[in-house]
Each structure stands twice: as structure tokens, then as C-alpha cells.
Inverse folding.
């Protein structure tokens, strides 16, 4: 397990694979799996609502 | 346990009946209303058709019950409670009459001295999230006000964590029309109320005293009526004691509510409902709380949302009763709400 970098919620591995994107159970941030041994995540890149316009 | 409801013809009384008629540990034996005495309770609460054959009785016919729920207007419970205590039953009062511990506040906020100030020490404020242990033996449960519940549950973790600085904390509350009760008067007529965003109490609202009592600090409360039947949203603006990171707020709210069955922390990064939304809570006993940090203004924003007839009244009453009776706290309160609604 590890912590969500946004809200510090405990995030479980549960057979996730490298590159998988999943939501944090508390704050909903889309997290991307950076590594499985040890388990590490970061916020997944996302498109802005206004595409920068 | 045998239960009676006094003042059962109002919206809160109807909501209590809805919950208690499906409560496995309760038998509702009597519902009183002077204005509807002799009429079926389903006349006032048509959603309960086929669920009960109870008929309203006059208040004077009230008998002894194991638990008596008082859903009468403010000022009436003050006089009824002593006799109910003498009879030996548990009292759950949904009015404001036994909420304030300081007797000097009753003339200020309710226009009259309390006739039985000696009983205030026997009353426990009905927020299990704060007073669960005291509620287990409380002779009188004083169910909090709806706006007060939303504001207290939103603000208190920030105070407890020492994150609120000097100066008043502003509570901006919006509420739906059912909070005014069944006899709301001309201001509650559809023709007058529909479409309003009415500042009905910019200052001086009665719940100010409850929020200060339970959350601490100086509260500046402003209340608005909005286009909804059910729902309260309290937006709390507190001065930050120092620069605060959002993760500190997560920690503060998790410490306060991590194991609470009816308080959910809602602060999500995406989606249509990122912060607490009363619409999603209709008919549920949840109070959703959220937060944000305003670094520009040195401000902490806390949000509390609930259904004023549920966690803001009848649901809270049943939750407190469950605690008092030693039952699972969620008994008869497990509705998850509707979506879309």
C-alpha cells in the first residue's frame, strides 16, 4: 500500500499493474501506477476542461 | 420499546413516523396532534398509506411510553418534559427548548426565560459525533437544529485541530422550505417562495447560540431560503490561524469522522458533485462535509450538507435513540439516497 499524494488516503495495490490509472477512494484523484515493487503512484495527467483557451 | 410522538402532524413528525414504523426495536403506540385529533395520520402523511392505521389523538390524551418524541414548536417542550421525566420514560425533544446549556441565552434567542433551568444539566445535545458517550445515559436528548448540525459538523474539526484564527467565523446557510414547518405562513406560500434566494435572517438567527456552544468561537450566521423542499448547505468561512496545507484538512476531518457512520468527507478532484450537495442527501441521515483552503485570503472554507428533516431533525432523533437504547446506530437509517433526483 501507499498514500495518495493529494489527500494522504491509504491506497491498496490489489494486483494493479504498471501504468494503470485508478481513482483515489477518498478524493477521487486519478492516480497512475508508477511502480508495483514497491507500490508507487502519482496523479495521472489530465486534460483541462478549457483546453487552455 | 413503545414510542409516542407528540406533535405528529408536522413535517418532522411525519418523518419520525416514516422511520419508526420500519424500526425493528420500536412500536409506535400513540401520535398526538390537537389540530388533527381524530383523523388518520395518513391524512397528514400520505406517503405512509398502508403502513399504519394510527389515528391522531389530542395532546391531553398522551399516555406513558418508553420513549416520547416531542416534535412540537419551540416553547412547548419546556413545560411537557418535567411530567414525562417523572413518568420515567426517555425524552427525545426535537425543539430548541433543551439545547442550550446556559439558561441566560433563552431570553436572548427564544424570547422567554427557561421555566425549568435545573433540567438543562440533564439534557444532552443530540450530536453523537460529539456526545456519544453522554447520550448513552441521557434522560433528555435535545436534537440539534438543522442549520446548526451542518455548521457544527463542518467547522468543529478545524477548531479541534487549532487551524482557526482570531476573529468571527462566518456561516452562510441556505435551506429548503420544509425547514419552516407545516405552518410556515404567508412567506411560505408557493407564489411568494418559489424562485426566491431570500435572506430571511442576515443576522441574529437562533442557531447562532448552538453553533457557538458546540463548535466554539464567535459565529456570524446568515440564513437564506432557496428553491428546494429539503436540504441545508452551510458554507463556513473561518480565518486561518496560519498558512495551511490542504492535506492538514484531510487529516483533521479524518481524525474527526473517520469511523462515523453518518458523516462523509466529500472533497473530490473531479466530477459534477465535488463538494457536499444537499440534493443527493434527500431522505438520508448523512451529513456530508467538505473543505477548501483560500491561500489568497487566508481563509478556510468548510461545507456541511444534509436533509433538514433527517440528519437535521428526525433522522438525528432516531440516531440518538439508537445510541441511548444500545441498538446499532444505523438501525432504520440505512437509506442511501437517490440519484438522479
Amino acid at each position: 500500500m501507499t498514500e495518495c499524494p493529494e489527500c494522504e488516503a491509504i491506497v491498496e495495490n490489489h494486483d494493479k499493474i504498471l501504468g494503470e490509472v485508478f481513482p483515489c477512494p477518498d478524493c477521487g484523484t486519478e492516480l497512475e501506477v508508477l511502480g508495483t515493487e514497491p507500490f508507487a503512484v502519482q496523479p495521472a495527467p489530465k486534460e483541462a476542461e478549457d483546453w487552455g483557451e | 420499546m413503545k414510542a409516542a410522538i407528540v406533535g405528529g402532524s408536522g413535517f418532522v413528525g411525519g418523518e419520525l413516523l416514516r422511520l419508526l414504523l420500519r424500526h425493528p426495536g420500536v412500536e409506535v403506540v400513540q401520535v398526538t396532534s390537537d389540530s388533527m385529533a381524530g383523523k388518520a395520520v395518513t391524512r397528514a402523511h400520505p406517503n405512509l398509506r398502508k403502513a399504519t392505521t394510527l389515528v391522531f389523538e389530542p395532546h391531553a390524551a398522551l399516555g406513558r411510553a418508553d420513549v416520547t418524541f416531542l416534535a412540537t414548536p419551540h416553547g412547548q417542550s419546556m413545560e411537557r418534559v418535567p411530567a414525562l421525566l417523572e413518568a420515567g420514560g426517555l425524552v427525545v425533544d426535537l425543539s430548541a427548548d433543551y439545547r442550550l446549556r446556559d439558561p441566560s441565552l433563552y431570553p436572548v434567542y427564544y424570547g422567554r426565560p427557561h421555566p425549568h433551568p435545573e433540567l438543562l444539566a440533564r439534557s444532552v445535545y443530540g450530536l453523537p459525533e460529539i456526545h456519544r458517550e453522554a447520550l448513552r445515559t441521557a434522560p433528555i436528548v435535545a436534537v440539534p437544529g438543522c442549520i446548526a448540525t451542518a455548521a457544527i459538523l463542518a467547522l468543529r474539526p478545524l477548531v479541534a485541530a487549532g487551524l482557526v484564527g482570531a476573529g468571527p467565523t462566518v456561516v452562510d446557510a441556505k435551506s429548503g422550505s420544509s425547514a419552516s414547518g407545516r405552518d410556515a405562513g404567508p412567506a411560505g406560500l408557493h407564489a411568494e417562495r418559489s424562485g426566491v434566494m431570500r435572506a430571511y435572517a442576515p443576522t441574529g438567527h437562533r442557531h447562532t447560540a448552538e453553533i457557538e456552544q458546540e463548535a466554539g468561537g464567535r459565529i456570524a450566521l446568515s440564513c437564506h431560503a432557496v428553491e428546494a423542499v429539503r436540504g441545508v448547505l452551510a458554507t463556513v468561512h473561518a480565518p486561518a490561524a496560519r498558512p495551511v496545507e490542504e492535506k492538514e484538512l484531510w487529516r483533521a476531518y479524518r481524525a474527526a469522522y473517520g469511523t462515523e457512520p453518518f458523516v462523509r468527507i466529500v472533497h473530490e478532484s473531479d466530477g459534477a458533485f465535488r463538494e457536499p450537495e444537499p440534493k443527493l442527501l434527500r431522505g438520508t441521515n448523512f451529513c456530508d462535509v467538505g473543505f477548501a483552503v483560500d491561500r489568497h485570503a487566508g481563509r478556510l472554507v468548510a461545507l456541511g450538507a444534509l436533509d433538514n428533516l433527517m440528519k437535521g431533525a428526525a433522522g438525528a432523533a432516531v440516531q440518538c435513540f439508537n445510541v441511548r437504547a444500545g441498538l446499532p446506530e444505523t438501525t432504520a437509517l440505512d437509506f442511501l439516497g437517490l440519484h438522479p433526483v
